Amino acid sequence: MRRTLFAASAALLAALPLVAQAQDFPTLRIGLADDADALDPTLGRSFVGRIVFASLCDKLVDIDAKLGVVPQLAAGYEWTDSKTLVFKLRPNMTFHDGTPVDAAAVKFSMERHLTMQGSARRGEISTLDRVEVVDPLTVRMILKTPTSPFLATLTDRAGMIVSPKAAEAAGKDFSLKPVCAGPFKFVERVAQDHITVERFDGYWNAASIKLGRIVYRTVVDPSVRLANLQAGALDMAERMAPTDVDAIKKDSKLKLVTYDGLGYQGITFNVGHGDRAKTPVGQSALVRQAFSLAIDRTALVQVIYNGMFTPAVQAVPEASPFYAPDVKVPPRDVAKAKALLAQAGVKLPVVVDLTVTNSATQQQEGEVMQSMAAEAGFDVKVRAMEFAASLDADDRGDFSAHLIGWSGRADADGNLYNFMHTGAPLNVAGYSNKDVDGWLDEARAVSDVAARRALYAKVAQANVTDLPLMYLYINKWITSMSTKLDGYVPVADGIIRPQGITLSK
Question: Does domain 264-474 have CATH number 3.10.105.10?
């Protein structure tokens, strides 16, 4: 594949150091595999959005490299009973607009997550009954029922706190200039090109920030991300292609970090979300089962990802305490796939409109599955779309099948509930199964790991039958960076946290 630098973009990046820097700290240039969606913690859904939020919006709590929950905006927390979680905030914190980070702001943000139109957080914190301000630095969250994953949920966007003053003033336009309490403040965004943030000197943990600016550059093609790393136009890039690992290792100016992820890649089928669900693959579980059997997951991973990823039919990796060992990846079986199509009584070939992003890797992945599925009687139409636009299409139900992943959460609830529970915000498939709803609700209500694992095993088995989500593989994070960069701490959620990162000249 031809590798070319983005000439205009490279020129812009080269010019950035000429702009006044916060206390003359260096600028870090990060290559992102997609453009972020809305820069609003309540609305955001994209993985790259989470990377940008790591610089803009601190959370009440975070996770560390061992996936333990650690305080961030909160100085500490305590469960006073099975339904009451109390946070004590750090003193003297401010948002980027100078207003205080206090208990009232936490209450505002949590209620915003629950009530704002289009909220992607509502399903994550749906068991939250109310939030009470105890004093300016103490906030009490009272749940409707005991919810074992609730604290873990707050280590992501549900735990991000926004400035009430800025959110109320901006209304639906808050994402155009988000105001939070992270180590960097928003400067500018050029859609599908770059997002720039600048050091916030009022950050509560300013001593951990050794950068003046971060420029997040959208570079969809992994080969172009690598070319720009090699040319020095980027300092760091996420989700490098497994096929480029050897080239990175051989480059004395680069270093490589690979580690296991928490999420998955799969296909979401539209089974009940508007008119686009009214297709053979949308209306018949037998057709979806046939499609799944037509795909050789092991071969797919080998061809596209050099065998580095792990074939899967579950939403969690094998290392998860919630993994169901009895739900196994089926071998490819074209004969059985054809028999299921005959049983379904559908006209051949069965057309499947498959949305992929405009990255070369995803398009190649779609084409490999297109070839595999054709042998069983499917006609897969691969349609490339810009990532954020594809999320909007999902929300409208304007898709038939979508090749899309989820970056993953440490608790299985974060990989399942919002996607499979009836009416949940990210259940764009329109899937509804009362048994699955019951198991997901029950898994939230119990704390025993073995009991929760058994419930999630039932969900996994139901998904194998109904297949609103066809899991393909569990990914690894492959991150490359200049040898001038130090202090990066890899965490299994794949998020690039700026704390501690240094960049030498």
Answer: yes
